[in-house]
């Protein structure tokens, strides 16, 4: 877009405000007097497909409301963090400091406010106070809120440990990825060994004398030596060591905060569920672990490589822990540190191949993390195949 000071004048003297041209494949392109180029989908098939994608992304399916965020300034001071009163009718509360699950307020558990102990989404429109207001919260109030959040998180983990297996909750995540799990297991079945093996390389021009080549040496042959070296495995040869995989799951506060907007936390939980189900009984081929990263740190253990979940109850516990951590953790971002530490750690382990997959909601710009820096970390060790997958995005954050 390029807005010229002559735009108003030229729009008055020109014959038309917009030029239109066909672009093929069910779309047209327009250019207006301000130099703004827009591409429009016009074909019925493409419009229907885009509408379905939009509905899946926003989550208006299954009766879930679309969440709207409205910026507001409260102009009021915080006092002390508290959970707040529970409204039995779940009516929306905006800007106060009495009710739990309110938005744009202070002191209580909710969304979009300041000084509260932790996040709590009651499913209403979010009224968001400015970052400047949030930054102005006194240090003693932050500390008290942090202590309250840690206590609530520990209590929530105890509940998760003691709770009965909830089949319907697990099925909701498992059913969403059933097809992908089946596809992934077919791929895992056909995986080839990639690790290079150290063995004797024969017919070399230098190295140790090969006893079997002494006669050839007498006849003038030069390549009569052997030396130790790495050789690619033959096609179809069995793996000597398992492949090593680490999934870095984003369990930061923004995952919970914006889950109502695009379902990013639930999609991340589905992705983790897919990994756990697909890799079950493939321990001989894959050794994996799942580590969380958030404002609390870069090495939050969710699944240990030595203790992978064996059944649906153990897998559900991992998913519930992800959700709880995202609700109660501090704001902040350790994506770079988590990626860097994981690549370094995996590079030191013996494995057929090494993989690090980073899940993130692309909320990096807020913390001054440049794409170039992230790229440097992802490609820091040629031994480790590192990938980033952005689940959820505000505007075009992920694309950029």
TrEMBL record:
SUPFAM superfamilies named in the record: vWA-like
Alphabetical list of InterPro entries matching this protein: VWA8, VWF_A, vWFA_dom_sf
Domain VWFA, residue spans: 244-400
Region Disordered: start-end pairs: 77-104
Domain of life: Eukaryota
PANTHER family for this protein: VON WILLEBRAND FACTOR A DOMAIN-CONTAINING PROTEIN 8 (PTHR21610)
Protein name as annotated: VWFA domain-containing protein
Protein source organism: Ameca splendens
């Amino acid at each position: 877009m390029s807005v010229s000071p002559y735009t108003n004048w030229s729009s008055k003297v020109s014959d038309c405000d917009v030029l239109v041209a066909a672009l093929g494949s069910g779309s047209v392109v327009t250019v207006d007097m301000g130099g703004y180029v827009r591409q429009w989908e016009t074909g019925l098939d493409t419009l229907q497909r885009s509408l379905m994608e939009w509905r899946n992304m926003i989550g208006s399916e299954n009766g879930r409301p679309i969440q709207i965020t409205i910026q507001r300034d409260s102009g009021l001071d915080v006092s002390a963090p508290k959970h707040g009163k529970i409204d039995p009718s779940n009516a929306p509360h905006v800007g106060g400091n009495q009710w739990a699950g309110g938005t744009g307020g202070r002191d209580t558990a909710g969304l979009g406010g300041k000084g509260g102990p932790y996040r709590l989404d009651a499913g209403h429109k979010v009224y968001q106070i400015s970052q400047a207001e949030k930054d102005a919260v006194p240090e003693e109030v932050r500390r008290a809120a942090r202590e309250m959040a840690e206590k609530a998180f520990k209590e929530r983990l105890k509940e998760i440990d003691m709770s009965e297996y909830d089949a319907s909750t697990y099925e909701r995540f498992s059913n969403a990825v059933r097809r992908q799990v089946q596809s992934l297991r077919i791929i895992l079945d056909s995986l080839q060994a990639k690790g290079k093996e150290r063995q004797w390389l024969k017919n070399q021009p230098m190295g140790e004398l090969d006893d079997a080549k002494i006669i050839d040496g007498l006849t003038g042959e030069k390549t009569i030596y052997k030396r130790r070296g790495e050789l690619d495995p033959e096609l179809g040869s069995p793996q000597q060591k398992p492949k090593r995989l680490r999934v870095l799951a984003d369990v930061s506060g923004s995952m919970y905060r914006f889950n109502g907007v695009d379902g990013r936390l639930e999609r991340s939980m589905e992705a983790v569920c897919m990994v756990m189900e697909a890799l079950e009984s493939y321990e001989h081929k894959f050794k994996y672990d799942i580590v969380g990263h958030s404002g609390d740190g870069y090495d939050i253990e969710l699944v240990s490589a030595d203790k992978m979940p064996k059944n649906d109850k153990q897998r559900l516990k991992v998913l519930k822990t992800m959700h709880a951590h995202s609700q109660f953790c501090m704001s902040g971002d350790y994506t770079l540190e988590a990626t860097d530490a994981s690549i370094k750690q995996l590079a030191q382990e013996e494995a057929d191949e090494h993989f690090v997959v980073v899940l993130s909601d692309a909320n990096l710009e807020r913390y001054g993390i440049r794409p170039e820096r992230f790229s440097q970390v992802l490609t820091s060790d040629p031994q480790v195949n590192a990938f980033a997958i952005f689940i959820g995005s505000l505007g075009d954050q992920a694309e950029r």
